[in-house]
Each structure stands twice: as C-alpha cells, then as structure tokens.
C-alpha cells in the first residue's frame, strides 16, 4: 500500500529512505491527523509566492448580455439578495472568488427594481462603467450611481439598491468576501425588504458633509477605519488625472512614470485607504504609454473604463477593451500599454498586507 503522505517530486531527494517502519509511522500520522513538515515544505514555504489564482480576463461584451439574461430570468429578492454574478478565478476550484481575498461581480437591476436592505461584515464598493438611474441607500443616505463613480460602503452598514429609472443598470461590486470566508469572520443581518425611496437627491448627505477638498467638518475630527464619503464622483477623478498629465507636459513632476497618471481613493479622516481591506485606484495612460513591469505581494483586479490597451500578466497577454476585467495574482509581473489611451479602475487587497507588514513590490530589474 502506498504511503498516504504526499511527497512533492521536487523535494523527493530530501525524503528519508522508505522502510516498512517508516510506512507504519506515516500510517500512524494519518490515523492521528498529523502531517510532517518535511513532506509539505515545498508547497507551504516556497521561496516566493506561488499564486494558486491565475491571470485571467473576463470580457464585458460576454458578461453584460449574461447579466441581461439573468435580469429576464432571475428575480431579485430576500434570500438571494442580489442579482450579482461573480468572477470565478480558474485557479481557485470554481469558487466565486476572483482572487484568494477578493470578490468581483457584475450586478444588474431592472427598471424600478429594488435589491433589499441588509448588512454584513464584508467591506464593499460599487464602480460604474456605464449607465445611471440606481441609488444605493447606505444607512438611509441615498447615493446616486453614475458612470465613473466609485462608491465605497464599509462593512456592517445597512444598504439596499433601488433603480429609479425606466432603464436597466449594471455595475461592478468588489468585496472582501473570500478573505472573510477563509478567516471565518463573517456576520450578516437582514434589514427591511423595501428600500427607502422617499427621496433621490443628486447629492448624498455624506457628500454634502465630506466632499469639500481639504475641509474637515469640526463635528467629525476623529479618524474612522473606513471612509465616511460614500461617493467619489467621476468629474473629480477625471479632472485630477487630466491635471497630472497637463502638469507633466508643463515640466512639473506629477505622474507616476511618463504618461501614467494615477490617483488613489482615500479616507478623508486618515488619508489612508477607503476601506480596511480594499485599496482602490484609477489609472490613466496617455496615448503611446507603456508601464514598467511590476509585481506585488497581494492580488488585484483591473477594469478598463475607457480606451484599449495591451495587458500582460505573467505569461498571459490580452488586448483589453472598455468594461473588460482582469485578475492579477500575487507576485505575477504585469505591464500595461496603449497606443491610443487607456483609463483603468483598479482594486486590490494591499491594506491587508501592509497592515501585517507582508507587503513587497518590485519593479523589473530591482530583484525579488
Ligand atoms: O450589493 O450588497 O456582489 O451583499 C455581493 C454581496 C453585492 C450588495 C455583491 C452583496 C452585494
Ligand atoms: Fe451587500
């Protein structure tokens, strides 16, 4: 009978000589639910991260029609909670996890439809690549969603979504569902079935209080772990990126590398990331720009907002277009390039790694 203990081919030379006594010992390990380090070390303690998640790209032109189909066939209601279709990384065994820590889904609401109120410990955000008409109502504060808006929503806040318009709307959700799932940290509660739709203001209360650059309301001087600002509007993001490129053209240092403008969405009470577990950024590559190759511990997802570009992640290479989403697993080198200009939304799990002092990154040539 073969030993139940798996021996990796690569470290077989380090394994002890098999004898009947050793086989007996290994069978004893199995019975007693024990595993020796010496058979597992190659997998558990690799020299550098070996991501189980794979580089993968999902096409918007495939996702959107399927979300529309779901809109015809699948009702939204209590229990299922959301008409959200998650990206399942091909390296993660079919689970609805885009990376080991992150969830990414396309969510779809028909005209006048509600997604019921609930709350959960998972941190979340919405990003809108096209369309408008839905309000997400966070702790009773209705927040309009439009193309280019980034809408963070920290864990344990009540939220429901309501389509006020006569057209359907789709957007993407990002959450730390896999991280909290592996960590057994998840709590969930149902709220009212109906979303409060008595009001649908253009500006949320959170924006009226917080969306004034550099101005802190004196009623709120304590730092909070997640951002109190519930909408980061496209007009601000767009202008910030345009000004970085304009300043670069005028000879001032403003871009992360030539032709590459970038901003991070931040918590105005700390200057740090918007959510405790999720970092979100927006990147703009001017026409004819390519980025240096880079790799980082931790994983991220990009969504093309506008334009077309060549994306390389590990051994994969794609031409990515508006709405396409791709996963960058931990420590996989990636580069972005565009002939005609490229706008990208990005989110990742960097805050987790930074807080645990596990963050590392390298530009090509800087070693590992
Ligand atoms: O919109 O509240 O994609 O709770 C997954 C879980 C969206 C949401 C998702 C959620 C939501
Ligand atoms: Fe939710």
TrEMBL record:
Short name of one Pfam family: Cupin_2
GO-annotated molecular function: oxidoreductase activity, acting on single donors with incorporation of molecular oxygen, incorporation of two atoms of oxygen
Residues spanning the signal sequence: none
Top-level lineage group: Bacteria
Keyword Transmembrane helix: no
Keyword Transmembrane: no
Protein name: Cupin
Alphabetical UniProt keywords: Dioxygenase, Oxidoreductase
Gene3D superfamilies referenced in this protein's UniProt entry, alphabetically: Jelly Rolls (2.60.120.10)
CDD domains according to UniProt: cupin_GDO-like_C, cupin_GDO-like_N
Domain Cupin type-2, first and last residues per copy: 107-173
């Amino acid at each position: 009978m073969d030993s139940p203990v798996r021996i990796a081919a690569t470290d077989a030379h380090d394994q002890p000589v098999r004898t009947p006594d050793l086989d007996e010992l290994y069978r004893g390990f199995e019975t007693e639910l024990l595993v020796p380090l010496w058979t597992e070390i190659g997998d558990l303690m690799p020299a550098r991260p070996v991501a189980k998640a794979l580089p993968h790209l999902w096409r918007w032109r495939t996702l959107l029609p399927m979300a529309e189909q779901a809109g015809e066939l699948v009702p939204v209601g209590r229990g299922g909670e959301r008409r959200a279709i998650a990206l399942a990384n091909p390296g993660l065994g079919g689970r609805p996890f885009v990376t080991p820590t992150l969830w990414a889904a396309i969510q779809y609401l028909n005209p006048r439809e509600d997604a019921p109120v609930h709350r959960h410990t998972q941190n979340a955000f919405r990003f809108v690549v096209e369309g408008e008409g839905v309000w997400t109502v966070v702790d009773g504060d209705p927040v309009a969603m439009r193309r280019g808006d980034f809408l963070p929503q920290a864990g344990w806040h009540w939220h429901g979504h309501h389509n006020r318009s006569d057209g359907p709307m789709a957007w993407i959700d990002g959450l730390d569902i896999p991280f909290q799932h592996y960590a057994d940290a998840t709590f969930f509660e149902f709220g009212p079935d109906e979303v409060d739709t008595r009001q649908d203001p253009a500006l949320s209360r959170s924006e009226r209080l917080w969306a004034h650059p550099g101005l802190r309301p004196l009623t709120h001087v304590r730092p909070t772990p997640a951002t109190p600002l519930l909408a980061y509007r496209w007009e601000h993001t767009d202008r910030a990126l345009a000004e970085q490129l304009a300043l670069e053209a005028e000879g001032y240092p403003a871009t992360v590398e030539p032709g590459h403008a970038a901003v991070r969405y931040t918590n105005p009470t700390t200057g740090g990331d918007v959510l405790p577990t999720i970092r979100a950024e927006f990147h703009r590559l001017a026409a004819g720009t390519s980025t240096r190759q880079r790799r980082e511990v931790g994983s991220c997802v990009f969504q093309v907002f506008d334009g077309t570009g060549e994306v390389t992640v590990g051994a994969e290479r794609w031409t990515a277009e508006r709405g396409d989403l791709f996963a960058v697993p931990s420590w996989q080198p990636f580069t972005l390039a565009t002939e005609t200009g490229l706008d990208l939304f990005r989110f990742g799990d960097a805050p987790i790694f930074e807080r645990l002092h596990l963050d590392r990154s390298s530009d090509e040539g800087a070693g590992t």
